[in-house]
TrEMBL record:
Belongs to the major facilitator superfamily. Monocarboxylate porter (TC 2.A.1.13) family. It catalyses: L-thyroxine(out) = L-thyroxine(in); L-phenylalanine(in) = L-phenylalanine(out); L-tryptophan(in) = L-tryptophan(out); 3,3',5-triiodo-L-thyronine(out) = 3,3',5-triiodo-L-thyronine(in). Its main location: membrane. Residues 19-46, 493-502 have a biased composition (Basic and acidic residues). Residues 1-58, 468-502 are annotated as: Disordered. The gene is SLC16A10. It comes from Astyanax mexicanus. This is Monocarboxylate transporter 10. It is found in: Basolateral cell membrane. Residues 274-502 form the Major facilitator superfamily (MFS) profile domain. The lineage of its organism: Eukaryota, Metazoa, Chordata, Craniata, Vertebrata. Keywords: Cell membrane, Membrane, Transmembrane, Transmembrane helix. The chain crosses the membrane at residues 68-92, 112-133, 140-159, 165-189, 196-218, 230-252, 280-299, 319-336, 348-367, 373-397, 409-427, 439-461. CDD domains: MFS_MCT10. The keyword ATP-binding does not apply.
Amino acid sequence: MTEDKKMTEPEPGSVPEQAEEKAEEKQLNAVEEKEEKRENGGDRNGEAAGSARPAEDEFVHPEGGWGWVVMLASMWCNGSVFGIQNAFGILFVYLLQEFGSEDDPDLRFRTAWVGSLSMGVIFFCSPIVSVFTDLLGCRITAVGGAAVGLVGLLASSFVKSLGPLYFTYGVVFACGCSFAYQPSLVILGHYFKRRLGLVNGIVTAGSSVFTVSLPPLMSALLKNIGLQNTLRVMCVFMFVLMLAGLTYKPLLPKPVSSGKSRGRCSALRRVFNVQIWKSLGYRIWAFGIPAALYGYFVPYVHLMKHVEERFGTDANKEVLLMCIGITSGIGRLIFGRVADYVPGVHKVFLQVASFLVIGLMSMMIPLCNIFGGLIAVCLLMGLFDGCFICIMAPIAFELVGPQNVSQAIGFLLGMMSVPMTVGPPIAGFLRDYLGSYDVAFYLAGIPPIIGGAVLCLIPWVEQRERRKRQQKESDADANGMLEQMPGQQGDMTKAENPESVI
């Protein structure tokens, strides 16, 4: 018995070593749990790893000054990029006249590919643009992108057939717009913190202002100077965009990583952040949004031609895009403010409501036999379009946390490129073979409703994940208290080794 007792007794110095090992293990587990919590959006306070956060805390945002110039430059960027894209319905009519033939059964299908490809490429390049912005900075990325967009738009004015427009307008011009657009949103965080919500609302409203003003301007230019010269006039917008990019002077200090391994992981995360995909709520969001957008861009491309066929060529079709633009700007200001009062991920229900209304309004377009009814439909569609756009960033913040918002939005925009590209050509294909746009608009309203239904799962999933995290934390705290209780370790040793008891 004495020998057994001696065998069970720990050697001198082993207990402190075991305690140290347990303490280190506990500390590592706490760090891992904290990191996992932050990656899954649990840490909403924005605590950063390493020494990057203290540098940011010491920085004081100007909240104005040169920042107002940067805000106006960003507003011009947002307006010129998406104003030209949203006004493609005006160009669509003249492209049919310039390059089309009534004997071509796929005329509208092939022509719609120009605008839808351009919009799709803007979103498709977003993940790549986020990497270039991190590596080269906002100013170089934005100015270079505007220059590429200028070249693409100028080249589009010299083409003599529809085929080259796929490359010059649909790829080169759109790629330049994408590289110019994303830095205009990133740079705002260098100058504003307390007023960032207000500034973002003003900047995103720039596209509404241009969507209202560009259609009548482009219609007048197309009638007086033709398609080619109109595209050359549009190059002026891209040249001003280059000058606007020169105002993007970065202010935030670059984060400094602690440790070589931490530095390598940080550099890899800047290229491709896989942590955002660990959040089930974000995965559902990243699937539901693209699923809802297959019919989103269809009215912007085909509504003008539908109005000509239904109400005649003399109908004031440009006023419809103006209605969408005006109410979209109003919606961004109203619902952006409303979202501040909606707690947590429940903000997603605002997007659900916007998709339901947009889907129903798309289905209502063929049913409008009077022009006034079509105006009412466009007013509602624009209002909830602004709701969908303005709360994307707040929802991403709630789902993945502040450290991962940038790439989370970038990857989402990249996934949005596919449905926004294929939707309008499919609608044009249906028009060519069915003789009207009625079925195309009916079908365009189905994806937003389905996507909105999918998004309803996010609050339930996030609540379940939150309960799991809380349970895990409570279990960890209970285990930690047991380990700290005096004599507990000895009792457990006796229970595990009953033969060692005399």
